[in-house]
């Protein structure tokens, strides 16, 4: 893994290469940003650059024995710590503290990468403070977190902050086509639905999301034409359709439904963009642009805003562990009722509460 393999993140890379040139390299960093944008890969690239046997100007060579070990995840001096279950617990930190007290195996730098450090329990965080302040020689600590506000200030203040930004659709599109051999049409869609996270785009690519998305959008478009008295059976039938996803456990049904809700929310947001004359370049469902334009005519702006709100609420219900089937039924019935009403949707919503 080389810095040049990481897409985007020019500022983070420039900062780290500049830091490496210093006589005394700072020993604690906090990488911040959403998941799936290269924080762990950059930690590996830094490990390679610090330990490479034939380093080039600002980067590792990518081919020496050390670089190969890092790429195949066999390098003993790259240590990754991740939550066990929901939290990183004090026992994990105690074990890490012990491991760091021995000199690095390969005689260079040992890099310890703490994934989702917001999941450190207070107890674990406190027992990590001293190590973070002054780790044994040869150790570099990298904490990663989505949002620094979720960490104890005493942790944040001991680290050099390195912000990572969401990737642009163009960066993700190019990566998917060049390195994953994804066809252009699919790459364009994945790059827009993944909210700037390459990790999310790759997950969607490998989970059959694109095929499911086509179905979900057709089902949503068909909903307008379902007669009111058939709305409930239609909702039940769609909820039933989620069951195969749930066969391997409730979490998969939940994940599938989150993707469905996000897909539908994007649809209504796209309609809002068209309806309000916003820039077409920010439309997510580019492959449905003709259908979107046609569909936009039959909704009012207020109606579209309410539709997005209904779906957002459903997403929150789902993360509070509500039954996925019931959540979906509720969304479908609520959206169907909005279709009936071309005037002021407030009156419909009031009637339903
Ligand atoms: Zn090398």
The CA-CA distance between the termini, in Å, is: 55 Å
Strand content: 5-15%
CATH architecture of the largest domain: 3-Layer(aba) Sandwich
Strand order of the largest sheet: 2-3-4-1-5
Largest sheet: 5 strands, parallel
Instruction: Give the number of domains.
Output: 2
Q: Please state the average pLDDT score.
A: 88
Q: Per CATH, what is the topology of the largest domain?
A: Rossmann fold
Oligomer: single chain
Shape: elongated
Question: What does the model show?
Answer:
The chain folds into two domains: 3-163, P-loop containing nucleotide triphosphate hydrolases (Rossmann fold, 3-Layer(aba) Sandwich); 207-352, Up-down Bundle (Zinc Finger, Delta Prime, domain 3). It contains 17 helices and five strands. Strands 2-3-4-1-5 form a five-stranded parallel sheet, sandwiched between helices. The chain has helices at residues 10-20, 39-51, 65-71, 90-100, 122-133, 153-156, 169-179, 184-193, 198-206, 209-223, 231-241, 243-246, 250-275, 289-296, 301-319, 324-340, 345-352, and strands spanning 28-32, 78-81, 110-114, 139-145, 160-163. It has 353 residues and is an alpha/beta fold. Residues 52-54, 60-61, 64, 66-67 line the site of zinc ion.
List the helices and strands and how they pair.
Layout: H1 10-20, E1 28-32, H2 39-51, H3 65-71, E2 78-81, H4 90-100, E3 110-114, H5 122-133, E4 139-145, H6 153-156, E5 160-163, H7 169-179, H8 184-193, H9 198-206, H10 209-223, H11 231-241, H12 243-246, H13 250-275, H14 289-296, H15 301-319, H16 324-340, H17 345-352
Parallel strand pairs: 1-4, 1-5, 2-3, 3-4
Helix pairs in contact: 2-3, 4-5, 7-8, 10-13, 11-16, 13-14, 13-15, 15-16
The structure holds zinc ion.
């Amino acid at each position: 893994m080389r810095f040049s393999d990481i897409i985007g993140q020019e500022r983070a890379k420039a900062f780290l290469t500049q830091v490496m040139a210093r006589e005394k390299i700072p020993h604690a960093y906090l990488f911040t940003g959403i998941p799936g944008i290269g924080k762990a890969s950059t930690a590996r690239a830094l490990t390679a650059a610090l330990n490479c046997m034939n380093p080039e100007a600002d980067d590792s060579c990518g081919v020496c024995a050390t670089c190969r070990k890092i790429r195949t995840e066999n390098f003993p001096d790259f240590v990754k710590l991740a939550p066990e279950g929901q939290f990183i617990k004090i026992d994990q930190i105690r074990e890490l503290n012990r491991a760091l007290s021995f000199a690095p195996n390969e005689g260079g730098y040992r890099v310890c990468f703490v994934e989702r450090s917001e999941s450190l329990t207070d107890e674990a965080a406190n027992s990590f403070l001293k190590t973070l302040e002054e780790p044994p020689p040869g150790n570099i600590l990298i904490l990663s977190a989505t949002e620094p506000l979720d960490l104890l200030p005493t942790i944040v203040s001991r680290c050099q902050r390195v912000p990572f930004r969401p990737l642009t659709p163009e960066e993700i599109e190019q990566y998917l086509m060049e390195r994953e051999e994804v066809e252009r049409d699919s790459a364009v869609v994945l790059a827009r639905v993944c909210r700037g996270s390459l990790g999310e785009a790759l997950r969607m690519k490998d989970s059959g999301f694109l095929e499911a998305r086509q179905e979900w959008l057709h089902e949503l478009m068909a909903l307008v034409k379902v007669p009111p008295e058939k709305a409930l059976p239609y909702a039940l039938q769609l909820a039933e359709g989620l069951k195969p996803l749930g066969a391997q456990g409730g979490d998969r049904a939940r994940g599938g439904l989150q993707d469905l809700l996000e897909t539908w929310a994007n649809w209504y947001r796209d309609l809002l963009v068209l309806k309000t004359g916003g820039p077409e370049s920010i439309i997510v469902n580019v492959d449905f642009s003709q259908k979107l334009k046609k569909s936009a005519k039959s909704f009012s702006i207020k109606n579209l805003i309410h539709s997005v709100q209904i779906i957002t609420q459903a997403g929150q219900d789902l993360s509070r562990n509500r039954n996925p089937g019931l959540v979906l039924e509720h969304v479908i019935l609520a959206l169907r009722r909005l279709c009936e009403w071309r005037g002021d949707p407030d009156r419909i919503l009031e009637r339903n509460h």
